[in-house]
Specification:
- With 433 residues, the chain is α/β, with parallel strands linked by helices.
- The chain has a domain at 1-33.
- 37% of the residues lie in helices and 15% in strands.
- Bound molecules: ligand F0G.
């Protein structure tokens, strides 16, 4: 048996070349399922280790290194790849100490070609657009998905269309989508409204939707788990901690980890912690109520990437929490920006939403849920240069209701040795940027 699409609610199946995002019968989300029993013999640690450092497409990609588990039957000639993945896993002892654990790694997905984890999904999604013969692709986005879609559409030589929320798109992301040549439309509505609009317009105008409702995107994103665990020499950590917005990553991680476990590539499941911003926390609220239902909300947070009040992948994220015995936590904008400043000051850096991971780890250790001896991996989802305005405003103390606890000051000096000496000897009062 090859791969199939299957509804996570009613189990109805569809061929992988169907133009479909949710189940025709019940509206449920779809999984791309592979025949794991048949793959057991080929999808081995040895195979994936042998491809590390490959110079040849498609295995030079950190997504397609795992092709057998991403899209086994696919003709490699159809793959649209930059190539993505192969991101670093940083050992961060100082941040570990701050967060209250002995061993902490940060998996930096901001090191993808367009500066966010979205590239791992986009290679899957745009490749599927090619499989289906689609000439136009679209997404609604808080910024990173649009940057990634724009780049991959350019590579595939098809039209990329991006719908932005009208406010608070980080400058770096907007600049990328414009620069890569996408059709950029600023819609007078928030992300949640834009998600609805993109589905509607796509049906009318024969445009392929590349938001994370698209299951082929999640197949790419689950490789963040494969690569992290391979970098840990196939030893599963105790905890994986990830920010949650539209919950595509959380959903993909749960599926990927379960597949690794079912294939015997790891011998136990890590626990997953999904961290939301307090002002955009519908999953957290539902979790607290035992997942009775998800209440859409109006979202507000400095972490604009995750300013989402009605996450599309709620049901898959719920399933991830079940599969991984996971937890959901929330952090304030203050905690997010302080954690970001600490990650940045390590010379690593990330955008605000990514810092939910570190802030969340600290909160969970304070609560005794993560313990000091646990081995923890936090996922950084976006690059420090994505949102320079938030970074500068933090260090200048210009963010409403946020006190920078880890500020760095820019000094002014006249163009003279004396003045520089005065600055460096600390004789001059610091001047803000
Ligand atoms: N971190 C960053 C930097 C993001 O851009 C996003 C999502 C998330 C975390 C949350 O991931 O949605 O899988 O739970 N950004 C989307 C976008 C929504 O449009 O770029 P998620």
């Amino acid at each position: 048996m090859g791969s199939i699409l299957q509804c996570i609610e009613c189990g109805r199946q569809y061929p992988t070349n169907s133009l479909i995002y949710t189940c025709d019968t019940c509206g449920g989300l779809l999984d791309v399922l592979h025949d794991l029993d048949a793959l057991k013999a080929t999808a081995t640690r040895a195979l994936f280790d042998a491809r590390l450092g490959s110079l040849d497409a498609p295995y030079d990609s950190g997504v397609w290194r795992y092709k057998e588990l991403v899209y086994p039957d696919l003709d490699p000639a159809l793959i649209v790849s930059r190539p993505e993945g192969n991101t670093r896993l940083y050992n961060v002892p100082k941040l570990a100490e701050w967060a209250g654990v002995r061993r902490l790694h940060l998996k930096h997905e901001g090191e993808n070609p367009t500066g966010s984890f979205k590239d791992r999904g986009m290679t899957g999604g745009v490749t599927q657009a090619r499989v289906l013969g689609k000439k136009r692709v679209a997404c609604a986005s808080t910024g990173n998905t649009s940057a990634s879609l724009a780049a991959y559409a350019a590579l595939a030589e098809i039209q990329g269309i991006v719908l932005f929320q009208n406010k608070q798109v980080a400058l770096g992301k907007l600049a990328q989508a414009v620069a890569y040549g996408a059709t950029c439309i600023r819609v007078d509505g928030d992300f949640d409204r834009n998600i609805q609009l993109v589905r509607q317009i796509s049906e009318e105008l024969d445009i392929y939707v590349l938001n994370s409702v698209n299951p082929f995107r999640l197949e790419g994103q689950k490789t963040i788990m494969f690569e992290t665990i391979q970098q840990l020499r196939w030893e599963a950590p105790d905890w994986i901690v990830v920010p949650g917005g539209n919950l595509g990553n959380s959903s993909a991680f749960g599926k990927g980890l379960k597949e690794l476990f079912d294939l015997g590539l790891i011998d136990r499941m890590p626990r997953l912690a999904i961290i939301q911003a307090e002002g955009a926390n519908p999953l957290y609220e539902a979790y607290k109520r035992g997942f009775d239902r998800m209440e859409p909300m109006h979202a507000e947070t400095i972490a604009t990437a995750i300013k989402i009040g009605n996450p599309v992948n709620y049901r898959k994220a719920m399933r991830t929490i079940e599969w991984t015995n996971g937890v959901v936590e929330q952090v304030t904008d203050q905690e997010i920006m302080d954690a970001k400043a600490l990650i940045d000051a390590q010379g690593i850096g990330c955008e605000p939403a990514s810092a939910c991971s570190l802030a969340g780890i600290r909160k969970l250790t304070d609560a005794g849920i993560i313990t000091k001896s646990d081995r923890v991996v936090g996922v950084l989802t976006g690059h420090v240069l994505k949102d320079p305005e938030a970074t500068i405003a933090y260090h200048r103390s210009e963010l409403a209701d946020i006190t920078p606890h880890y500020p760095n000051t820019v000094y002014d000096s006249a163009a003279s040795l004396e003045s520089l000496r005065a600055v460096l000897e600390g004789l001059q009062e610091p001047v803000q940027v």
